[in-house]
Design a protein that fits this description.
heterodimer, A: about 400 residues, alpha/beta, Rossmann fold, 2 domains, 13 helices, B: about 220 residues, 9-stranded mixed beta sheet, about 25% strand
Amino acid sequence: MNDPVFGIGKLDDDLEGIPFKKVVLLSASPAVGNEVFGYQIIYNNAIHKNKVLLFLNRTSPQVYLTEMKDYDFKIDSNLVIIDSYSNLTGIKSAETATTRVINNPSDKEEIRKRLSEELEKGYDLVVFDSLSLLIDSFDFDFAVSMVDLVKQKLQTKDSSAVMLFTDWEYGENDINKLGTRSNAQIEIKGIEKRVIFGQYFAVIKCDWVKGKQFSSVLFKAVKPGGIKIYFPKILITGPTDAGKTSFIHSASKDAVSVDRLGGTIALDHGNLDFEGYKADLFGTPGQERFDPLLKLLGGEAIGVILIVDSTKPDQFPRAIEMLRKTETYGLPIVVVANKANLPGALALDDIRERLHLGKDAPLFQTFAEDLSHIDPNEPTKLKKEGVNGALRALFKELT
Amino acid sequence: MTGIMTGFPSFDAATGGLDVRKTYLVTGNKESGKEDFSYRLAASSLNGKLSVVYVTNNKSNTDLLSEFTARSLNIAQYLGVSMTILDNYVRSIAPQAGDNNYTKVLNGPVDLTGLTVAVSSKNSDLLKDGRTVVNIFDSISSLLLYNNPVTMFRFLQYICGRAKMSGVTTVFLLDEQMHTPEVNETVRSLVDGIISLKLDNGKRYFTVSGVAKEVLTWTPLG
């Protein structure tokens, strides 16, 4: 048995998992949904041998498990489901070793009794999907009494709970009743104008983490893969032939380049899916004749990876000039010193000094994976240690 | 912008079609022809280069397509392009049912959040492509059977609010005989226009109220 976790890097980094006896409220706006958070939390606990109890009134267990599989969250043990849905809609559901069936999902007492009995058996994590449906089916007071029941059981068992809740603009007083009963509250919302053009989550409160500021982050729910922190625009810039295109092609599987004779003449683009993060990488051309494009390409970037050729310090002033021309000076930045294994490559300290980088500024070396397969007309595969190190450092800066 | 043609010449001549960005309730009893109205509206919208998001709450996506075929409404070329079906029914008879290139399978009538997310997300995708969108909910009577009126009110209020904000024309089908007058009145209060249909002596008739071009006397639909 392990301490329960979220299984979502950013949340586990910020909140250090879900300690026993704590209740987490995952509160979503109606257009965004929080069910994938539930799938991911259940999966990441079940595979780490935590016993999970799921109270399910949103859909049938079969459909729920199918949905989980669609996100590549396949589990065959450590999950027990209380099915408070099937008998509402006439779907056949049989009591099994892993399924407890509520005969009458409209009967408060039966729900309370079955849940209470099951909680007595001891689970590491209890998940409710969904608390708001309990409110809609009955009333707020019943839902609150169920939260109280779970909280009471958590005190006597080594267990924690996650409640999935959709905020259909219930009354403020009622929402506060849930808020005061939760040890942590995470909001999941959309950036909604005429269209929904982004979704984000933010830790609103957490009573077991002190003295930490929590930031909101954009995310995407991806099939397969689940919740990925999403950065809509990371700029990859640097002088001609420093290795920008190679970096993008090494970091992403589906990169495309607009190039001629091996030189980028418009832009590179790649979708990055890396350690729970997703990002769109945009690479600039390096030649000065394309400088009018730089401001356009830099617009709305939220982070920068600056690529320099370790053997060409004479290009370093141009590298700094490109930051200015892309108007990205001041954004979180990571520098990648490419071609670090070639004769004449400068040492990291030397590069740091010549680029006027502070001693803590993230700087990584990388070089071609295989020098015998260099084709000047094709992107070169770079050593993943340097590429991954740079990405990790930038994402840390951004979150 | 001109109205959205419904495929019924008498209706379109009298009303100018459905107003873009408005929400409509199509009411009438079982035999009034609400579903026929929605199928022809969908086909007419697609032929007029609009996009349709068709939410089916009481039949599967395959049964829905059979209804179009039975009426000689050929929409095959639009499937997965400008016609998307959100199937909120099939999992009640086939829990393992999955998506295809024109259908997203939803969890069922109780999961209004799932339905809202799917509609909002599909609308966003289409609007980002510069499309004009019509949402059809066939029908909300099924949803009202599984959810209490307060919950449904919140859901419809949210859907109508988002439709207004997004400029999406939205049509709800409702069999008023299945619900109490209070519920019907609540639903009516949320929409802009009300299209009433009836069958009388083998002929169908309509009225329209609540929008600029009203038709307040029963008029033959055809």
